[in-house]
Amino acid sequence: MACRGVLWAFVVSTCLGSSVAQKVTQPQQEMSVQEKETATLACTYDTSESNYYLFWYKQPPSGEMIFIIRQEAFKQQNATDHRFSVNFQKATKNFSLRISDCQLEDAAVYFCAL
Ligand SMILES: *[C@@H]1O[C@H](CO)[C@@H](O)[C@H](O)[C@H]1NC(C)=O
Ligand SMILES: *[C@@H]1O[C@H](CO)[C@@H](O)[C@H](O)[C@H]1NC(C)=O
């Protein structure tokens, strides 16, 4: 199959927390998504804090780290920004990223950070 029109999202784990009690887990290794479709990137985390921020970043092949979206733990709404939105479940500590209407420019490594 030709790669044209296919999004390659390489997902790896990271932890930008200062406390050892904090960690994030991203189960997917790699996924490909057709253009215009919606991609969901899973992330679960663990922290003993009650007040915290969660972030998604992406690193395209050019190498720079690009901030996508931020969620405040106390916010009662899921953060959204254009084609990006999160499904934040504080009780189960899930913080997945949804990318709607996928574009070729979305091909990147995605980092979930606490
Ligand atoms: C985010 O959206 C999901 C699905 O609609 C919902 O279950 C969840 O409670 C929402 N989270 C927040 C913080 O509003
Ligand atoms: C939270 O993430 C875990 C691991 O990815 C998954 O098994 C579980 O179904 C998710 N729960 C919700 C409420 O999305």
UniProtKB/TrEMBL annotation:
- The answer to whether keyword Cytoplasm applies is no
Give an example GO biological process.
adaptive immune response
Would you tell me the Gene Ontology cellular component terms?
T cell receptor complex
In what residue span(s) does the Ig-like domain sit?
Answer: 22-114
Q: Where does this polypeptide localize?
A: Cell membrane
Q: What is its main location?
A: membrane
Question: What domain of life?
Answer: Eukaryota
Q: Which keywords has UniProt assigned to this entry?
A: Adaptive immunity, Cell membrane, Disulfide bond, Immunity, Immunoglobulin domain, Membrane, Receptor, Signal, T cell receptor
A Pfam family it matches: V-set
Name the UniProt record assigns to this protein:
Ig-like domain-containing protein
* Xref: PANTHER family: IG-LIKE DOMAIN-CONTAINING PROTEIN (PTHR19367:SF47), T-CELL RECEPTOR ALPHA CHAIN V REGION (PTHR19367)
**Signal peptide segment:** 1-21
